[in-house]
Design brief:
Blueprint lengths: L2 E7 L6 H22 L4 E4 L6 H13 L3 E8 L6 H9 L4 E5 L13 H6 L2 H14 L4 E5 L5 H21 L2 E5 L13 H8 L2 E5 L1 H8 L4 H14 L1 E2 L4 H20 L4 E3 L14 H7 L4 E3 L4 H13 L7 E10 L6 E5 L14 E4 L11 E4 L5 E10 L4 E11 L13 E5 L3 H10 L5 E5 L4 H11 L2 E5 L5 H6 L3
Parallel strand pairs: 1-2, 1-3, 3-4, 4-5, 6-7, 6-9, 8-13, 9-10, 16-19
Antiparallel strand pairs: 11-12, 11-18, 12-17, 13-14, 15-16, 15-18, 16-17
Helix pairs in contact: 2-3, 6-12, 6-14, 8-10, 9-10, 10-11
The protein binds manganese (II) ion (MN).
Manganese (II) ion binds next to loops.
């Protein structure tokens, strides 16, 4: 289970009695936060920082504990910030500065110099905030009494993002085949994305998968088919084509399990030894939180896995999506997002139907895929691009809507949405910013989650939404 350490600052100037009280308060506060947050993250107290050496020691604990995804820091008393410099320079995990107090109310009738000395976060946290800023350490600030619901929820949000960053740092991405020929935005610098986000992205020949695929047993295929029949409606009579997908999914599952892979890509241009492009196989894996990018798009695949992790425990849908076509009726413009095949069933508003229909590309057998209408509601659409000298994340607020009319001849999953602040500014903003045609859509996450992720990972972010102006569009250009 992931944990956040609670690291509190003081100093040895006040004597043993005060430090004993500080330690007792820290323990009590950590216990309270742990009880409120334990569904998301555990909270564990560390010994109080009272010298530069003790700070270094505790930060080492934070760095070295594989279960720890971040640290909550707070100054109970004054804690001279030069004591924190060397420790903070070592820190390798997300940091939350919790500006709080052990006491909620000021005891007007009884407050004396001892009480004020013991409880001086308004003083100590300013000294500490300065050094975080001076050291340019990416961090989040949460202000409020630690027992208040809104404070706890703000810490929970940090915990979700910190868990996603930890997941990102350990994520392995498998590319079956390479990037689709001639396509630009889906390509990228895999050395830089490993340095920046931690993604270990490696190419595997499709033959490596085919070798496993050939050994999949009839029993394993039957078990997978039983799962499909339970989760989805079998519309097709071409059961053999569906079995082909089941066989591919079992093979993919074995491959990613063995190599601890959390996200993968394939490409219709490299399917040697397979009969179909993975359709349901990819869709059903996405339903289990495995990241996916088509056409060798490793960045979107990795980002979708990281955001699915961030959305864990939240209501809503998160997954890969591809921009396709518009309804340009003036004032009622809508976008239809879909894909040739691989839309995650997380977006299904209706029970997905399995059908087998020609793909039109790749020269393979007709692939079985899941077909459904998408969910509705407020969402974000997020993409990642490689700008040459940096990665850029673009986050647009959108509204998923019901498709105005049926599309009986479009045999893929369909998601429709409205751009914000309006169609023209929303689309122009995305285009000026160089936004991709692959993205991650989420009804569970919000812009503020992505903002926090970008701040903590030092990633450029462009946002598009109701606050976007014409002046913004000019700024987005490069
Ligand atoms: Mn594409």
């Amino acid at each position: 289970m992931s944990k956040l350490y609670f690291l509190v600052g003081s100093q040895d100037l006040y004597g043993a009695e005060t430090l004993k009280q500080v330690a007792a308060d820290n323990k009590k506060m950590a216990k309270f936060m742990d009880s409120k947050l334990k569904d998301t993250v555990r909270v564990e107290v560390l010994p109080t920082v009272i010298t530069s050496d003790s700070c270094i020691e505790q930060i080492r604990t934070v760095n070295n504990d594989p279960e720890c995804v971040g640290v909550i820091t707070w100054m109970h008393t004054f804690s001279p910030a030069k004591m924190w410099i060397k420790g903070l320079q070592l820190l390798q995990k997300p940091l939350l500065h919790l500006h709080t107090q052990a006491n909620e109310k000021l005891p007007y009738a009884t407050i004396d110099m001892d009480f004020m000395n013991l409880n001086q976060a308004a003083h100590g946290d300013r000294e500490y905030g300065f050094i975080l800023s001076r050291l340019r350490i990416p961090h989040e600030v949460v202000v409020g009494y630690y027992e208040h619901e809104d404070t706890i929820e703000a810490i929970r949000k940090f915990a979700r993002v910190a868990k996603a960053i930890d997941y990102s740092k350990h994520l392995r991405v498998a590319m079956f085949g390479n990037n689709m020929r001639d396509v630009a935005v889906t390509d990228g610098d895999r050395v830089e994305s490993q340095i920046h986000f931690g993604w270990e992205t490696n190419y595997y020949a499709i033959g490596d998968l085919v070798a496993i695929y050939k050994k999949v047993t009839a029993k394993e295929i039957d078990a997978k088919m039983a799962e499909y029949k339970k989760k989805y409606t079998m519309k097709t009579k071409n059961i053999d084509a569906v079995k082909e997908q089941a066989r591919m999914e079992v093979a993919l599952d074995k491959f990613i399990e063995k190599k601890s892979i959390g996200a993968f890509t394939d490409t219709f241009q490299d399917l040697h030894g397979l009969k179909q492009l993975p359709g349901i196989a990819a869709q059903n894996l996405m339903a289990r939180g495995i990241g996916f990018g088509p056409e060798g798009d490793y960045k979107t695949s990795a980002l979708s896995a990281v955001f699915m992790k961030m959305a864990e425990g939240l209501k809503g849908s998160t997954g890969f999506i591809e921009d396709y076509t518009y309804d340009l009726t003036a004032g009622k413009e809508l976008e239809l997002a879909s894909h040739m095949l691989e839309v995650p069933p997380a977006f299904a508003a209706t029970k997905p139907e399995i059908d087998v229909i020609p793909l039109g590309i790749g020269n393979k057998e007709d692939p079985a895929r899941l077909i459904f209408d998408g969910v509705q509601g407020d969402a974000i659409q997020v993409c990642i691009t490689d700008m040459g000298d940096r990665f850029r994340i673009i986050c647009a607020d959108i509204e998923l809507v019901k498709q105005p009319k049926k599309m009986p001849k479009l045999p893929v999953a369909r998601i429709m949405f409205r751009l914000k602040p309006d169609f023209k500014k929303g689309a122009a903003g995305w285009l000026y910013a160089g936004g991709a045609h692959h993205a991650v859509v989420s009804t569970a996450l919000t812009r503020s989650d992505i903002e926090m992720f970008c701040r903590l990972t030092g990633t450029e972010l462009i946002t598009i939404g109701d606050d976007t102006t014409d002046e913004d569009l000019a700024r987005y250009r490069f």
